[in-house]
Amino acid sequence: MEGKGSTAEIMIAEARKAFWVMVAFLAVIWVAQIVNWASGYALSRDYGLQAWNPATLPNMVSSPFLHWSWEHIEGNSGPLFIFGFLSAYRGVARFFSVTALIIVVSELGAWFTSDPNGIGVGASGIVFGYFGYVLVRGAFDRHLIDIVVGVVMALCFAYQFTGLLPQEGVGWQAHLFGFLAGVVGGWVFRDRGGRSRPAAAPAQQSPRAALLKELDDLGL
């Protein structure tokens, strides 16, 4: 019983960390938006990513935190919080590694494939990265709860898949490469520890029994 209690406590603690990490993330991009708006979006022009311009490559770090309009940041904020929290609630340390991978791949992908006449900014590449990560993490980690979460998210946010298709005036390249990075991140940062199985346990477990065990481990 002590082990199950400690597992639940650890999960709750990580979920709290994930919540506050995403609150901080949103606070940063909204403060940046206020400053950006007040400057006539000079920050987006100066610190955004321009395809095939080597001078803007360091801006891979800054461009995800900037946006071009209030509508732009409003459209990203909700999915960013939802997918970000679901990506982080099993472990904030791993979440930061996944985030770094998504930023690098999505920004480099956009840098190589976008129109060099435009300047790309926005957190949508990260949003799609988290989306891809949430969809596959359960299968790679073999956590039934995360598999269920991935299926539910895929059904509830099916419209997000249209953002992976070429569209005029939309940075779909960052979306596509971010999504792919999230899928790859699910594999690269999968849970390799494995969960020990008692010697007397049956070789196979029904999906319902496995799901109940997951819930029981979390103290639910």
Number of helices: 8
Task: Tell me the span between the first and last alpha carbons.
Answer: 13 Å
Largest sheet: number of strands, sense, barrel closure: 2 strands, antiparallel
Structure classification = mainly alpha
Given as residue ranges, the uncertain stretches (5+ residues, pLDDT < 50) are 195-203
Helix-residue proportion: 55-70%
Count of strand segments: 2
Widest sheet: strand ordering: 1-2
Rg result? 19 Å
Strand content: under 5%
Q: Quote the average pLDDT.
A: 88
Order of helices and strands, N to C? HHEHHEHHHH
Report on this structure:
- With 220 residues, the protein is mostly helical.
- The protein is built from 8 helices and 2 strands; from the N terminus they run ααβααβαααα.
- It has helices spanning 2-38, 42-47, 70-88, 92-113, 124-141, 144-156, 172-188, 207-217, and strands at 49-50, 119-120.
- The protein has a two-stranded antiparallel ribbon.
- The longest helix has 37 residues, at 2-38.
- The chain is globular and about 50 Å long.
- The chain starts with a helix and ends with a helix.
Summarize, please.
This protein has 220 residues and is an all-alpha fold.
Keywords for this entry:
mainly alpha; globular; two-stranded antiparallel sheet; 220 residues
List the helices and strands and how they pair.
Blueprint: H1 2-38, H2 42-47, E1 49-50, H3 70-88, H4 92-113, E2 119-120, H5 124-141, H6 144-156, H7 172-188, H8 207-217
Antiparallel strand pairs: 1-2
